[in-house]
User: Fold this.
Amino acid sequence: MSRVYNFSAGPAVLPEEVLSEAAAEMMDYNGTGMSVMEMSHRSQAFQEIIDTAEADLRELMNIPDNYKVLFLQGGASQQFAMIPMNLMKHGEADYIVTGQWAKKAWQEAQKYGKANKIATSEDKTFSYIPDCSDLPISENADYVYICENNTIYGTKYKELPNTKGKILVSDVSSCFLSEPVDVSKYGIIYGGVQKNIGPAGVVIVIIREDLISDDVLEGTPTMLKYKTHADAGSLYNTPPAYGIYICGKVFKWLKKQGGLEAMKERNEKKAKLLYDYLDESRLFKGTVEKKDRSLMNVPFVTGDKELDAKFVKEAKEAGLENLKGHRTVGGMRASIYNAMPYEGVESLVTFMKKFEEANL
Ligand code: PLP
Assistant:
């Protein structure tokens, strides 16, 4: 077996322990004589899987009792519609547009009501997080929406915006469980799991109970109502059962690592190694304002497209995969999620140093 260091932005690297445990259980999960893939979602064995997953996630994130945890489908993108359909009671919401995903959410919300773009960093290719200490929050806004970690551009909010009492809704797809968060500051925290938690196909929504009701926009499909899923314990219809099972294993792995404080420390150490090198390199440079740098996604460029392409090709040959930057930014991007070991980042930096020497 040969594993590469996989720097993909998502779907992304998962802990090897989780993968091998799942492989060992593939033919016979816990004495059931079948794989979780083959199991009824109404079985006791699966009920235990989803209950344990929820309990472990609650413990990891210290989720207060007045929040529901929902395991849904449709990816993070489906939430771009579900959020306004369920929350826009006054037909208005405020969006902070810090990248493509926030922009898509803002554009989708315009289908359902008045979606105001109250701040953006598009003027500088989303390379920073705008000042959010005194935003022009709309009086009638039902919520303020952010994308907390911008996967494509590599920026992250270091402080949450001052929403002036309005409900905060946050897409944490690419920073989920990478560090502790205070759940009580949010109305909704949600994310696709395919970056930091599990396989594509599951989206986790953590939602304050008072935001769940039948009072949704007219015509909202049953499947797109939070209440449908909250009332049914995420088992209204067949859930993405295998994906939830893997998420559960990742939660156990995170607990074993020491929880989110420990992950934060680890992630800071990994990111520092790469950022420190970028700051001293004469060939490569980071593309993001230092104060807003993400711990998870690190874009960088040489400034020469051909050299960038050569780097990506040679890195791949050296077992460092998926370093090509997003098509809208160019250059390179190293995604260094929870499951990327320190040694992976070390290998990358060593390779970059060699490449710099050979190509300057
Ligand atoms: N939000 C963020 C921050 C993302 O990085 C992505 C995907 O990369 C999405 C939303 C869209 O996720 P999905 O493909 O699950 O709809």
Notes: Residues 259-359 form a domain with the Aspartate Aminotransferase, domain 1 fold (CATH 3.90.1150.10).
